[in-house]
Design a protein that fits this description.
2 domains; 31% helix; six-stranded mixed sheet; alpha/beta
């Protein structure tokens, strides 16, 4: 588990990228619905291990759609997608599920389970892995306290505010320290102070070895650190290192 203590103010250096195979690679990827025009075209990019990048662009540019293509909950109509060194074009659902377990994702609509407490929602990925609660209870409590939910861990999501649900969803995605974290507007429902704190948590997770992709239109958030920007505009992706 990463150390979630606050660090000095200012621009924060990111963990250096290592000479390892890319976690994700898109080659000449395109997407269209039916016989309509392509909404994404000629997408070429890679996500190296331990890297940190922002995915940005105007509303409706396709940021969430691109994340779905990474997760393979949406299939491209052309091109090649490689996840963790595997060409996934012919993978079965079971094979895709195996790869998805290496990816944490924060959804815009939270997707918390109302019949579970906040603690149980956050602990769910570890429970699915087969871990005994005694081995992870302290980690879950530490993370919930760090995101400001220490006094809300035993209540169901219906009791939480929108911002609290967002923090619970972030904690659930982070708890298993995945190889890759995809976050879709993770700070959209929190105040600027908490947004900065959550960004620092993403950075700490990145330093522990997880590659991070944050989809956002928040320029102030992106200006807090020096990181690669993936900019979607008019169906094409532009990479700025």
């Amino acid at each position: 588990m990463a150390n979630f203590a606050e660090r000095d103010e200012g621009t924060l250096p990111l963990w250096p990228e290592l000479a390892e195979p890319d976690l994700v690679r898109f080659e000449n990827v395109g997407l269209r619905y039916g016989i309509g025009p392509e909404i994404l075209r000629d997408i070429d990019f890679a996500i190296p291990p331990q890297s940190f990048q922002f995915l940005t662009g105007p509303s409706g540019a396709g940021k969430t759609t691109l994340l779905k293509l990474v997760m393979q909950t949406l299939k491209p109509t052309r091109g090649r997608v490689t996840l963790f060194g595997e060409n996934v074009s012919q993978h079965s659902q079971a094979e895709l599920a195996r790869l998805r377990r290496k990816i944490g994702i924060v959804f815009q609509d939270f997707r918390l389970l109302d019949h579970l407490t906040t603690y149980e929602n956050v602990a769910l990925p570890l429970l699915v892995q087969g871990r005994d609660e005694a081995s992870y209870r302290a980690e879950v409590i530490e993370l919930l306290r760090w995101v400001g939910l220490g006094d809300r861990m035993h209540v169901p999501p219906v009791i939480l505010s929108g911002g609290e649900k967002q923090r619970a969803a972030i904690a659930r995605a982070l708890i298993a320290q995945p190889a890759l974290l995809l976050a879709d507007e993770p700070t959209g429902n929190v105040d600027p102070g908490l947004a900065r704190r959550l960004l620092r948590l993403f950075i700490e997770l990145n330093k522990s070895g997880t590659a991070v992709v944050i989809a956002t239109h928040d320029l102030a958030l992106m200006d807090m650190i020096d990181a690669r920007r993936l900019v979607l505009a008019e169906g094409q992706l532009h990479v700025y290192d």
